[in-house]
Amino acid sequence: MVGWRGKSGLWPKPATWLAPPIVSAFILLLIPIFWERSEIRKVQSAVLVGERPPAIWIVTDEKVLGKNYGRTFRMSQSDVGDLCVGFVGDVEELPNVAGTTIVLTGRFSSSVLRQKLAGAAALRLVNPAVFPQELEEFKNRSEKMTVFIGDFSQSPASQAWAGESNTRRMAGVGDFIPDWPVKLLQEIHTTP
Question: How far is the C-alpha of 176 from the C-alpha of 65, rounded, in Å?
Fold first, then answer.
């Protein structure tokens, strides 16, 4: 085709050559306007989801929430609503948590809990891998602490927690909670 146009001298007008790049540039400029923004950001070692400061801080454990807990949360964000959540991998990474709900999942370091959780509004343990005796000081503040255990949990620690007064069962789950954003956050919001 190019050979024929060169031999015949019939080329499109210069304005025709400019149309595709101009239209492409215009489309690229419109993409950010219609692109749905995700309010996910990293601040130091924490991942924050939402526009406001987090109302709930979750200390993650892969055995309870899975390896892709962030993806699971994003997929369930429409069910959860505009809830602002912060994720950290260890209790030591928690920032100032005054007035927030702290969710500790699975295994966590109990040595720094006192100073990190002093101003927290509520403490929720989910399938804890620590025994009640390790958290004696927090058991005295039972109005702030609730323990959630899956019905099919196999952890010896969860069996020890079963006899405590501030323990609630989560139906249909074991140590791992596959649809944790809906299941867990629903349980947390219905707990006084």
Answer: 6
Q: Is residue 68 within 8 Å of 180, Cβ to Cβ? A: no
**Mode of pairing for the β-strands spanning 167-170 and 145-150:** parallel
| 105-136: pLDDT as tens digits | 888 776 777 777 777 888 888 888 888 887 77
Structure tokens at 53: 């400061």
Identify which of 100, 76, 87 has the alpha carbon closest to the alpha carbon of residue 180: 76
Say whether 168 sits in a helix, a strand or coil: strand
Note whether 149 and 127 are within 8 A (CB). yes
Q: Which CATH architecture has domain 40-190?
A: 3-Layer(aba) Sandwich (3.40)
- Position 144, amino acid: K
What pTM did the predictor assign? 0.74
- DSSP 8-state secondary structure symbol assigned to residue 82: S
Closest by CA to 48, choosing from 76, 14, 12, 73, is: 73
Structure tokens at 29: 């400029």
* Structural domain spans, the chain: 2-34, 40-190
